[in-house]
Design goal:
2 domains, 3 strands, about 220 residues, Arc Repressor Mutant, subunit A
Amino acid sequence: MPQGDLNTTSYVILGLLVSRDSSAYEISVHFSRGVAELWPRADRQSYNAPKKLLELGLVTSTSDPVGTKRRRTVYSITDSGREALATWLATRSRPSALEFEGMVRVLFAEQGSIDDLRANLATMREQALQTRGLFASHAERMREPDGGSFPERQHLMALANRFMIGHFSHIVEWADWALEETDSWPDTVSPAVTHRDRTREILRECAERGKADGAP
């Protein structure tokens, strides 16, 4: 089967089905417990993607009764599905990509007011705190005696959780810094001239830090 027939969402679903059979609804619930923050598009594709895997023979499906009148489709991974997942894990991953509306608003902030910019920075900080709290609650849940939803994968989820906590902590720290930097700005346009020396100092620090961390 050509690897091009699958996308990352496909492999996320296969990875979830390795642990247990699940319906499309149960898969979407698992996405809401941290996967969506790593791969947002997975949540949008969670109901249709299993059907593609079924067509490719990577999963099978059964129809189970729910109550007296309804039935649900439950998906199970096949040997071919496990092989496809293992093959994907052995390949080189693509570079990370960031989808961050708040930062896009920062880039074009000169078209709005200073109040708009600072409100956006405060919103970015608040949202990062909320999501960091979500991952903290995931960590607490995994520390319970039953080990959470996937105890057999807990050691790997701990690695990812540490990254996500650090990621959102960085956003909080950056937002605090940006709010302090913009506190003296009268607007979003004139600092290009009045704060030119400070801007160049920030860029110098960025260049030096990037090189110190191994950038070419």
